[in-house]
Design goal:
The chain is of the alpha/beta class and 362 residues long. The protein is built from 15 helices and nine strands. Helix 3 packs antiparallel against helix 4, helix 6 crosses helix 11 and helix 13 crosses helix 14.
Length: 362
């Protein structure tokens, strides 16, 4: 610690306190990615210790990627400003990564910005989410049932504005592109944002990248379907960007219809929504329990051991074979509920999925 402090002060660069602030403000996902990059670099050096200069260069590169000013960080994330011509509104971190990479490949960083709503809108209450009361209600439910550390993911990066505040500051001249899709998650997110934009005079476009990619690339011999936009690679999203130029803005009637659809969704306090037959279906939270039990049974029947299956494996299998974008946290919540109801036996400590196993109760 002492040596690090002297080094920073001598070089005149980032101080130790600033480094601590940077780590504190990073998202968990970014911390994991940075640590993975560091560990992989060290691994390469241990395997080839004569490549010392390359090792030092790579470590410095990782450092430079992390130690950026808030302004530089905002620029890298394409945070909209007064000069932004097109604002892309997306739902979920995986979609952020794909759309951001596509914008960079098309060299649109100077004209395009992004706003991300990271929440998974297919799970958890959305009752009155457009009001502070509703957001507090969602936060309390999520903390109680899914994630004790959940915050109203309206989620500042380095002290920046949250998504709702960013929407409020979209410049008047900017075209707004809402990335919807064939999933309850993106459809609900889209309608939520449509309501937030109800007083805006901006040109608004809704784009369904999933439908565009399936139409362009699926053939009788090759069929690929996506549960949400985040599963589409940037190479295919480039074609979606080109298609976007031919999509007209939503009419006043369409926007009004979508706003009313949101108000309908926001009346219910149910916590699970599925995409079936081209529409969002609000269902009871135990709607997928039988599917989850069948998944445990299927894995258990293949096992030669005592039948106990790691919870993480059960959840991964359930997610992999379901044509819905639900998320692992909700599935584990229902797995725990089945344990409490006496339908599953447990072995281990249920502090995290990797620490316990389950089987059908005999």
């Amino acid at each position: 610690m002492f040596r690090l402090g002297i080094c920073c002060s001598i070089k005149g660069g980032v101080g130790l306190r600033q480094l601590k602030d940077i780590i504190h403000e990073m998202e968990d996902q970014d911390v994991r990615q940075a640590l993975l990059a560091y560990l992989y670099t060290v691994k390469q050096y241990k395997e080839e210790p004569d490549q010392k200069d390359i090792f030092i260069s790579d470590i410095v590169h990782i450092y430079n990627e992390l130690v950026v000013t808030p302004e530089e960080a905002a620029k890298q994330r394409l945070v909209p400003d007064s000069k932004t011509k097109t604002v892309h509104i997306v739902f979920g971190y995986s979609t952020v990564g794909s759309v951001r990479e596509t914008i960079k490949q098309l060299s649109l960083q100077e004209s395009d910005g992004m706003i991300c709503f990271p929440d998974l809108f297919s799970v958890g209450p959305i009752w009155k989410l457009h009001e502070p009361e509703g957001r507090r209600y969602r936060e309390e439910w999520m903390r109680t049932h899914l994630d004790p550390e959940y915050t109203d993911h309206h989620f500042a990066h380095h002290g920046e504005l949250n998504p709702i505040q960013m929407v409020q500051q979209i410049p008047e001249q900017a075209r707004i592109v809402i990335w919807g899709g064939d999933s309850a998650h993106e459809k609900i997110g889209s309608r939520y944002v449509q309501y937030l934009l109800k007083e805006y005079k901006n040109e608004v476009i809704e784009i369904n990248a999933v439908k565009i990619c399936e139409r362009k690339h699926n053939t009788p011999k090759h069929q690929q379907y996506y549960r949400h936009t985040g599963e589409i690679v940037p190479e295919k999203l480039i074609e979606v960007f080109h298609e976007m130029k031919r999509i007209g803005p939503l009419t006043a009637e369409q926007r009004s219809k979508y706003e009313q659809e949101w108000l309908g969704y926001a009346e219910t306090k149910q916590v699970l929504r599925l995409w079936n037959n081209g529409e969002v279906n609000t269902v009871e939270e135990n709607d997928l329990d039988e599917y989850l039990l069948h998944t445990v049974y299927k894995l258990q029947s293949r096992s030669n051991s005592d039948g106990f299956m790691k919870a993480a494996r059960v959840v991964g299998e359930a997610m992999g074979y379901l044509d819905q974008h639900i998320g692992d946290v909700f599935f584990e919540y229902r797995l725990r509920s089945l344990i409490y109801e006496g339908k599953l036996e447990i072995r281990g400590v249920p502090s995290a999925m990797r620490y316990y196993s389950v089987r059908i109760k005999s």
